[in-house]
Amino acid sequence: MARKTTQIQTPAARARSRRSVLKGLAATGGALAGAQALPGLVPYIQAQSSAPIKIGFQVHRTGIGAAYGRWYDRTTTAAARVINEAGGINGRPIEIITEDDGTDPKRGAEVVEKFATLHGCDIAFGTLFSHVVIGSSPRAGELKIPYFVVSEGHHVASGMLNRYTLQPGITDVKSQVQAMAPFVHDNLGRKVTMIFPDFAFGHDHRDYFSAALEKLGGEVVAKIAIPPTESSFTRYFPKIPRDTEVIYHVMVGPAVLTFVKELGEFFGSSRPELFGFIDSLEAVDIATPGLEFLEGSYFWEGNPRYAGANPSEHDSFYRAQVGVDADGASLDDPKDVSTYAHMWGCWETLHVVKAGMEAAGYQGIGDRAALIEAVEAMTDLPHGRAHPQGAKLFNGKTHQVFGHQYISKVGGGRMTLAHTTSIEDTFYPDEVDYTTQPF
Amino acid sequence: MSGATRKGVVLHLGVVALLAGLQFVLPAYHHGNLARVMVLASFALGYNVMFGYTGLLSLGHAMFFAAGLYGMGLAMRHLGLPALPALALGVLCGAALAALVGLLALRTAGVAFMIVTLMFAQTGYLTILYFGAFTRGDEGFVIPRAARRIGALDLSEPTTRYFAALLLLGLCLFATLALVRSSTGRVLIAIRENEDRARMLGYDVFRYKLLAMVISGAMAGAAGAAYGLLFGYVGATFASVQYSIFPLLWVLLGGAGTVLGPLVGTLFMFYLIDLSSGFTSAYMLIAGVALVLLTLFAPRGLMGLVRARLVPWLP
Question: Maximum distance among all alpha carbons in chain A?
Fold first, then answer.
């Protein structure tokens, strides 16, 4: 079923697929002819044809990204199980080989090397934090191992990386942030104060949102950068201009609870509208004491944590397979809240890998370039079990996927979907054409 | 050349020759690992000059590694400098920062010195984040493969990378050996053993300690610049506190005050983490237990143990 939902539409891809099949048949014929001359080879060939496809899974098991990593792990395990139950890829099961990157770019690069040169993985896949991806990508390019990242950073589409690094399963921060501007401008207010962590993630929000809002005629009246070592925020709040209509906040890490509490104490009952990114509160129960001040505020979500009254069949299937209830928590433990806004990227990426390998007639590491070409040829990725978050468009030139973004409103200690952006809202001009780079 | 010196030179030449020979027999994975270990061991060798031979316990050495890394990386990214001058600039940045920090931090001693170096390193880390428009902050940036060349040598090519790392390690190894066998090195050791007595004998202790710090910073800067060139990434993580702790651990494990100790400690720690992470996510706990056991049973580190039990002339 998953195979049907992911369509490869370009003629080039179909032609490539046919060529790959013919080449595969010729190679198989040649191998069988050789096997007749050398009978001892037959078991080897049979073993090769049914051997698992090895997927190296780079995951944050330790370090600051561990909460995300745990759910990336669960989602990946579920996706691999679903793919294997449906017959695997080209008739071969997939095997997930997991290595902890420690949320560290040096270790991340070492892990990619381990996948390529020790485990003999067909591809590398996974991980969220941008610095780990950026630190690992050069080694993936040098070792010529396709590296499918689930990072949401703009680093792939910015052209910083290389042809072996792709992000086909999760949208990037630039598209997410700019797609929020129309909703904020039309529904919440035109004068926005931004509060963001003073490092690259926060700077991306500052730059992309400011540009998008100003294009609509709005104004960012203050940009308040919070140093990453800060644990109390009260002294920053007097910098918020009095004419602020909306506070756009994107704090991350454990200090977010203090941030919300102190913001509530500062404003009391008469606060501006609040808009934030759920990154702050991934894996955190919205009903946690101290978060009451968020009541009535809005959040971006990559995928709505709460299923709502009418979830799609595909979302329900995905939740059931991963083991998440309608409130985005573990079925085993309702207090174990998932990183629902991000982890779907692992599920969708593995399904793109499956579709790409099938289109390329992937047999082994010699077909890595064909796999990348097959993924580059993808365009429409329809809403379905392979893409439960929603329909998407993949841009083969920039190696980046584009999709719907969701905005939810906090109420009663939960969130309700308030707005869904179009895919077009997330587009921006291409900044690179990776297809011109040689393999 | 005395007998002990000759033995020391032969031993270290042998180690370099062994490492050169391993290039031809190691499987790809370990080949890549050893290249990385040699660069990091050069960092540790620099730390050893300060800590192992001069007795200056710094908790901020990541700033010198990062000075080299960013000195090289920013020059290539924003000024378009070729790899070789960028590498030289990286070494210079490490040495210059060490001189600057040394002039201030060496006015303190002991625990105060540790805290001051820690604070300087944290300032360095936050500076990188603050100037995110140039440094790309915590995300860092990639050094394009096409730029990672010195003449006809492609530093991203495995064999070239390996020999470049070996060259760096060899230079740091023999520079350390020459230093500790020189009269300057003996003064540094005298300062470590009894600073007051060295001062009483008429040595300008501040000047010698500053010299040790500059040599140490230059080696750390060289390692940082080489790391960025050989592995293609420049990022703020390398300026964070954990990268100040790592060289301390490597030197303690391998043997502070031994020339080969930093290499042995780095290699040991690398594979301890690499292997134990395959069994448990609590691999740093295993590393911690190993460190505690070594501290209990081999307080002078692995090469310190070898020196005490087997090879008394070990430099």
Answer: 85
Q: Provide ipTM, 2 decimals.
A: 0.92
Domain ranges of chain B: 3-241
Environment class of B146 (CB within 10 Å of its CB; exposed 0-12, middle 13-18, buried 19+) = exposed
Amino acid identity for residue B312 in this structure: P
Which runs of E-coded beta strand occur in B207-260?
Answer: 233-234
DSSP state letter for A364: S
Using one digit for the tens of pLDDT, what is the confidence trace for A110-124? 999 999 999 999 999
Give the integer Cα–Cα distance in Å for A182 and A212: 8
Closest Cα in chain B to A158: B141
Max CA separation in chain B (angstroms): 56
Which residues of B are less than 8 Å from A56 in CB distance?
none
Mean predicted confidence (pLDDT) in A426-433: 97
Please name the residue ranges forming H helices in chain B. Answer: 3-22, 28-51, 62-79, 83-105, 111-130, 132-135, 158-181, 183-193, 195-200, 205-231, 242-254, 261-276, 283-297, 301-309
The structure tokens listed for B170 are 């060899």
What is the dotted CATH code of the domain comprising A2-171+339-396?
Answer: 3.40.50.2300
For range A402-415, the mean pLDDT: 95
Considering only CB atoms, which residues of chain B are within 8 Å of chain A?
27-29, 32-33, 36, 122, 126, 129-130, 132-133, 136-143, 145, 156, 231-233, 235-238, 274, 277-278, 281, 283-284
Instruction: Give the phi and the psi of residue B134 in degrees, each rounded to 5.
Output: -100, -35
Question: Is B140 in contact with A131 (Cβ distance < 8 A)?
Answer: yes
Measured between beta carbons, the chain A residues lying within 8 angstroms of B27 are 117-118
A174-301, what's its fold? Rossmann fold (3.40.50)
**What is the rounded distance in angstroms from the CA atom of residue B18 to the CA atom of residue B9?**
14
SS3 A416: strand
How many Å apart are CA A407 and CA A187, to the nearest integer? 12
Q: Is A98 within 8 Å of chain B by CB?
A: no
Find the CB nearest A134 among B141, B156, B238: B141
Structure-token match 């690069």, residue found: A109
Among residues B14, B75, B19, B10, which one has the least CA distance to residue B42?
B19
Check the CA dihedral B91-B94-B98-B99 and report its sign. positive
Domain limits, CATH 3.40.50.2300, in chain A? 2-171+339-396, 174-301
B129 to chain A: which residues are within 8 Å by CB?
A: 198-199, 227-228
What single-letter DSSP state applies at residue A94? E
Which residue type sits at A407? Answer: I
Please list, in sequence order, all residues whose beta carbon lies within 8 angstroms of the beta carbon of residue B271, skipping any fewer than 6 positions away: B33
Measure in Å the smallest separation between the Cα of A134 and chain B Cα atoms.
7
- Give the model confidence (pLDDT) of B140-198 as tens digits: 999 999 999 999 999 999 999 999 999 999 999 999 999 999 999 999 999 999 999 99
| Contact between A229 and B126 using a beta-carbon 8 Å cutoff | yes
